Amino acid sequence: MENKIAIVTGGNSGLGFATAKKLCDNGIKTYIIGRTKDKTENACIEIGSNAIPVIFDLNNLAGIPAMIKDIAKNGNIDILVNNAGINMKKDFTEVTDEDFLTIIHTNLLSVFAISREVVKVMKQHGGGNIVNISSMASQYGLPRVIAYSASKGAIETMTRAMAVELAQFGIRINCIAPGFIKTKMTAKALNSDPERMQKVLGRTPMGTMGEPSNIADAVYFYSTNESSFVTGTVLPVDGGNSIGF
Question: Catalytic residue positions?
Fold first, then answer.
């Protein structure tokens, strides 16, 4: 995997950080895209010399083409991990049009825009791998996260459509649907809601929450030749949560 180039969006914390570290530890030069300068630069320092910070807000759709062109000056973009995303917990009737659009803009439109620009580069160089990050919210119904659920469901459908269209160019597209993983975002959602936490663990056959490294390992599998005949799939990494009773 040496001499490969990867991009991880939202790679300065949580699942993105673990993924970026996994790629960098395996010799892949990885551009970590984050909005916050200090947080992104510090993450790259912690990961090591293969991590390169890119300070950019993915909500700036118009700026994405130029940002990708700058990265592509250093060679082919072999791997793109669309990890960045935001959530919002609100009762269904309290969600405004603006609230809904904000989630869709970040979680869906930016994924489409950056994927489109990266695919242009990958086509010129004969292929590549894109890994989208979905959620359990796309596997079954979750209350109070209607916009987030809609965005992640769209990500999975887009994964399949991209895979079919882009296979002819040697570009594989796959998706990971993380279960409940030990991150700050999950802690914020569950620590103040013991009933919700118990429900999560109760329907997870393996009886525990996952680690960010579990997601990173799955991303790495999709990014290597070990998955060379795999495209258009959605892989739940969830301890069985999506099929738990």
Answer: 148
